[in-house]
Each structure stands twice: as structure tokens, then as C-alpha cells.
Design brief:
Largest sheet: 8 strands, parallel, barrel
Helix content: 25-40%
Order of helices and strands: HEHEHHEHEHEHHEHEEHHH
Bound molecules: 3-methyl-2-oxobutanoic acid
Radius of gyration: 18 Å
Distance between the termini: 58 Å
Number of strands: 8
Structural class: alpha/beta
């Protein structure tokens, strides 16, 4: 007899499903870093994909403002609002809690929500924390240092984001590799050191030459670096979920690998990503780095 009570709309397990791994916390991320275990991070924007990522063993789920491009169809991340981020952080949090509740959830602070003052940043970061985020991510270096310190002092863990910062794509003149000149590399490294000093607990390095990101990673014992297009020698890796599943009708960036090509399910592709990051087989500097 068929089960007429089963939902046709996806199958999240009951909220009481037992966790099969320990929850990822800030101390746990630091322990992983200290013993050289790479951190696997993926973006997710809704409950089901977040639940699958959690079940696949992804350490950190970034509710990135890349959702503006992959979910909302915007031309860049600049148009994403705080309310949209809150909605997606809430959805991801519900999904993660339904499965194992183990992944560390990072909410991206969208453009214009932290630029005026540390107080403005705190007010808006609180919205994402109350929506379920464990940490917020803030793009930029130098002028963001005081804001990062202000949030950290008030109990909000912060992930920095340097290199290509998509919210300032217009000022940067496009999606270009950053830190290629000696001066550019020095500025990037100094900003990274300042962010660590201000208490940032993670640092995304996006589209940075592999040698420079390896050097910055060595210089930051207390702030694991998470690379995207930044070579193999970072403390962890992040990819936009749609890219690593090959759901991309445009030109695939050089630093992306389509993990769906050899997998028979989304969960399988995410598990392959986690394994490749942990074993250090993704990224391959010969294929994915500058
Ligand atoms: O918004 C995002 O998804 C990001 C990642 C590309 C790091 O910032």
C-alpha cells in the first residue's frame, strides 16, 4: 500500500534525527586548523541544500550574498538587502537543525549594512545572528578593522573577506585577481594581519595568487584562511554551491571544479568536495590557481 501521508515536497528528516558528528564550533575550527585539518565550506541558501551539505560533512555553510546572483538573478551582489539575507539565513538554519545541526553557519553582511559605523554594523549583524548565523562575514580590509573589533568585543564572531571583494567589483574594475603587484600584495597582507589582530576568526581569500595566499596563511596562526581561487595552501576552501554542482550556464571560473561530473547525487558531489578539500587534492595549483 502506498503511503499517502508522505510529503511530495522533499524529505527533510524529523527534527529529532540523531546527529552523527560533533557540532562544529569556533574552538573546533581552531583545533582543526592547529592540527592541519582543512576546513570545507560551501555556500547554501535554502533549507534542503543546507541540510544535504550538513549531512555530507561540510564544516561551514556560508549563506553568501552570492545568492543575489544565483538565486535572485541580479547582475552583482550589490543589490542584496539585509532582509533578503535574514530570510535565507533563517531558511538555512532550519534545514541544518533538521538534519544534524552540526555545520557552522556564516551570514554574509550585504553591501551598505556595515559601512557607516561599527554601531550600524552591530545592529545589522544582530539581525543575522538572531536569524541563526553563528558568525558574520564582512568584506574589505583597512577601514573594516575597527568594525570587526567592535563586533568581536560584543560577542559576534567575524569572518573577514579580502582579495576580490565582489561588493566593490565596480571600483576594482571587474572580477580580477588581486594582490598581483608587490604593493598590492603588501596591502593585502597588512589588511590580513590587522583583521587577525582585531579578532577575526576566519578569513576568506578570493582570487589571490597561490603564493601570496600561502604566505598570508602562514602569517595567520589564529585566523584560518579559506581560499576561493587562492590556491591549495590555505587552511580551507569554499565554493559557491551552484558552481561546484555545475549549475552554471556561463563560463566556469578557472578555480572551480564541477564535483557533480563524477557523482550520482548532490550529496555525493558535496561529499567528494569535502574529501578532496580534506585530502588536499582540491584545488590543484596546476589547474585552479594563478
Ligand atoms: O557570497 C559568497 O558566496 C562569497 C563566497 C564567494 C566566498 O562571498
Amino acid at each position: 500500500m502506498s503511503d499517502n501521508t508522505a510529503s511530495p515536497y522533499g524529505t527533510l528528516p524529523p527534527a529529532s534525527a540523531p546527529a552523527t558528528r560533533k557540532p562544529v564550533s569556533l574552538p573546533r575550527l581552531m583545533e582543526m586548523h592547529a592540527r592541519g585539518e582543512k576546513i570545507a565550506m560551501l555556500t547554501a541558501y535554502d533549507a534542503t541544500f543546507a541540510a544535504v551539505a550538513d549531512a555530507a560533512g561540510v564544516d561551514c555553510i556560508l549563506v553568501g550574498d552570492s545568492l543575489g546572483m544565483v538565486c535572485q538573478g541580479l547582475p552583482s551582489t550589490v543589490g542584496v538587502s539585509l532582509d533578503t539575507m535574514r530570510y535565507h539565513v533563517e531558511s538555512v538554519t532550519r534545514g541544518v537543525r533538521r538534519v544534524q545541526g552540526t555545520a557552522w553557519i556564516i551570514g554574509d553582511m550585504p553591501y551598505g549594512t556595515f559601512h557607516e559605523s561599527p554601531e550600524q554594523a552591530f545592529r545589522n549583524a544582530s539581525v543575522l545572528m538572531q536569524a541563526g548565523a553563528h558568525m558574520v562575514k564582512i568584506e574589505g580590509g583597512g577601514w573594516t578593522t575597527n568594525t570587526v573589533r567592535f563586533l568581536v568585543e560584543r560577542g559576534i564572531p567575524v569572518c573577514g573577506h579580502l582579495g576580490l571583494t565582489p561588493q566593490t567589483v565596480h571600483a576594482l574594475g571587474g572580477y580580477r585577481v588581486q594582490g598581483k603587484t608587490p604593493d598590492g600584495a603588501d596591502i593585502l597582507k597588512n589588511h590580513a594581519l590587522e583583521l587577525q589582530q582585531a579578532g577575526a576568526s576566519l578569513l576568506v581569500l578570493e582570487m589571490v595568487p597561490a603564493q601570496l595566499s600561502a604566505h598570508i596563511t602562514q602569517a595567520l596562526p589564529h585566523c584560518p584562511t579559506i581560499g576561493i581561487g587562492a590556491g591549495a595552501d590555505t587552511a580551507g576552501q569554499v565554493l559557491v554551491m551552484h558552481d561546484m554542482l555545475g549549475v552554471n550556464l556561463g563560463k566556469m571560473p578557472k578555480f572551480v571544479h564541477n564535483f557533480m561530473a563524477q557523482a550520482d547525487s548532490v550529496r555525493g558531489a558535496m561529499e567528494a568536495f569535502v574529501t578532496a578539500v580534506k585530502q588536499g587534492t582540491f584545488p590543484d595549483n596546476a589547474l585552479h590557481a594563478w
